[in-house]
Amino acid sequence: MGNRRPLLLAAGLLGAGIATALAPATAEELPARIDWGERYTVSSPIAGVVREIAVRAGDRVEAEQPLFTLDTRRLQADARAAEAKRERLRLELTEADREVERAEELYDRTLIAVRELELARIERSMAAARLARAEAQLQKIRVDIGDSRIEAPAAGRMLSVTVTVGEAVSPALAPPVLATLGTTDPMRAVTTVDAATAAGLEPGQPARVGIDGERFSGTVGVIGWEPEDIGFGTGYRVDIHFSPPDSLRLRAGQSAEVRLGSGE
């Protein structure tokens, strides 16, 4: 009985040590910088003239919301011409089908040689190929007309608008950057930690982000594998994802504090 108390004390100390080792990597507040969840470059896949701009820098937009419209008058004219060509080629294919039917009937009656029958069939195949090319060209024009309506790739805030109404854009010369967009749900608080702290972190672990006295729940996102200096001294980058209210109107580069773990 006399030896049980030291053994229990030792076991308690050992258990406390294990619990400490399994606790969150750090509970101290770390300096951080706010950044957009994702940054998108909005461009145009087709050449054209900007007819309408529906947003301004700073606007909050939803995914697939229209941002820009290009002038489609030339495309619409091309589409009408392609539709007329398609109808003409459909008539040609119908006539080629009739010619094959007549040739087969004459061949069955031994009134024409097999060569003439084969020529009729070749002409029908060529007419079908011409019609298929015309339909593909019409489909491409329709896709280009759809691409003239440029939409937001994700919900977020417009960071900049770099074109004006009447400006011509052409992806053949260079990818035309029309605007940039940053997503705000979630946003990121970016900090750096030492190697030991980084080794104890896993994506999805809870964290807290502090901004001007307000605190927001978040989760650990990307954990860097190479040291870098992003303004807080050299360390391993850690991204904390969090969802601030729209009313806060955060901007990239604002200062923040991060507390890893769920504690306040």
TrEMBL record:
<keyword id="KW-0175">Coiled coil</keyword>
<dbReference type="Pfam" id="PF25917">
    <property type="entry name" value="BSH_RND"/>
</dbReference>
<dbReference type="InterPro" id="IPR006143">
    <property type="entry name" value="RND_pump_MFP"/>
</dbReference>
<feature type="coiled-coil region">
    <location>
        <begin position="72"/>
        <end position="139"/>
    </location>
</feature>
<keyword id="KW-0732">Signal</keyword>
<protein>
    <recommendedName>
        <fullName>Multidrug resistance protein MdtA-like barrel-sandwich hybrid domain-containing protein</fullName>
    </recommendedName>
</protein>
<dbReference type="GO" id="GO:1990281">
    <property type="term" value="C:efflux pump complex"/>
</dbReference>
<dbReference type="InterPro" id="IPR058625">
    <property type="entry name" value="MdtA-like_BSH"/>
</dbReference>
<feature type="signal peptide">
    <location>
        <begin position="1"/>
        <end position="21"/>
    </location>
</feature>
<comment type="similarity">
    <text>Belongs to the membrane fusion protein (MFP) (TC 8.A.1) family.</text>
</comment>
<dbReference type="GO" id="GO:0015562">
    <property type="term" value="F:efflux transmembrane transporter activity"/>
</dbReference>
<feature type="domain" description="Multidrug resistance protein MdtA-like barrel-sandwich hybrid">
    <location>
        <begin position="41"/>
        <end position="174"/>
    </location>
</feature>
<dbReference type="InterPro" id="IPR006311">
    <property type="entry name" value="TAT_signal"/>
</dbReference>
